[in-house]
Here is the input.
Amino acid sequence: MDALSVSRRAASPPRFAGGPVGVVVAVQFAVLTALSGRYGFHRDELYFLAAGARPAWGYADQPPLTPLLARLSVELFGSTPVGLRVVASVLGAATVVVVALVARELGGGKGAQVLAASATALSAFGLVVSHMLSTTTVDVLMWTVLGLLTLRLLRTGDGRWWVAIGTAAGIALENKWLAPLLLVALGAGVLAAGPRSVLRSGWLAVGVAVAAILAAPAIAWQAAHDFPLLGVAAGISEDDGAGNRMLFVPMQVVYLSPVLVPVWAAGLVRLWREPELRWARALAVGYPVLCAALLVLGGKPYYAVPALFLLTAAGAPAALRWLGTGRYAARRSAAGVLAVVGAAMSVVVALPVLPPAALGPVLAMNPEQGEQVGWPEFTATVAGVWHSIPPGERAGAVILTRNYGQAGAIEHYGPRHGLPRAYSGHMSYADWGPPPEEKTGPVVLVGAPGPAADVLTGCRVAAVHDNGLGLANDEQGTPVRLCDGPRAPWPQLWPRLRHLY
Here is the structure.
């Protein structure tokens, strides 16, 4: 029997368990909000704040959506970590709801929907991306939405769902350039396992056109700037590709939680074995295709994690059947203990519940925790060097940083120390321009010199940053140099200082 015929005769999904899923979402949102100000901004968040203050149709390393959301959030709720992260918490809550809807689409009843929602809300990766705003926060939501819409298309055979898929894809492409990987993987799954009839629908062309129209501004910006994102991708593959490939499989096990591996693995098996889900086999094929593509490209292991949320939703009914009733009480008790342990580990690894000084062991599993600590102190270190410049020379002086996190921190925290804006050749900071040509005075050089060593004169280390916690994050031990000045006007030197990764 043709898979599309099966899909058209498939029973309507169970009722959505809005009440219980809503409770999961409410608890998640409350916990995230309570902890959102416990540490401070992440380096990427500082960059998003800077980018949002300079609205554009694109940036060197990303389309405009996340910086615009950052600007919206701080304008509505305040320029603090709590204010910025409101939007992250909302996006995380939306992801939980969508994963529950995926479980429903795949025949999961109330229990399966709540299990899928809870697993998403309590997974380490889900908590990390919902706690702080990043392009991945938006990407996870959009990938799960694309998964839900694709499953709806495959189940119903109604080609008009291509328009919704195209709309979601276009929005996703205004945030990050990874969504086509999922669509190509699912498309390969449809070609391999059916129902292929959906690929012959005239609505497919409409969906592609909608996606292209929505993504056009960001693509046009990249084209006008010689596609810097390709340079970023090449840098990731060249510098991190070998490590990404080596860690890819182990990280698939730990990103959600080792406790959830049997659930999403059961989802793979269920999609392939259950005749009533024959229409959804494309998802079971799509995940390994996606992983293979990322291994070839040297992509980061977390790029595939949204697909694991979809598989977790697929596996929830099977997990509940395995737990069973009556004589399976021992299974339920063991599963309950493992769930509590797994949830506790996720919370400690992903959220700022420990004192910053105690983060050392956590950083091995989630270095992003350390990147939320010490930025005000870092800015104070730079300020100490700046104020060592004689007052009469400061008008012609410049602060130059190695990376966008350093520049973003100085831009945000610097005014309270009387600092001017910082310049950097990193990512979009390079596009925001060099120092004015008349700035020929001393240079406070923050971080490893890199190419700046060849364009500045008389550099000597004036301070070494210490966060006071003994915390080995990326900025601990950063040298701050004081240099006599540039060897040539800044506009001439700037192309040599630009770097994308």
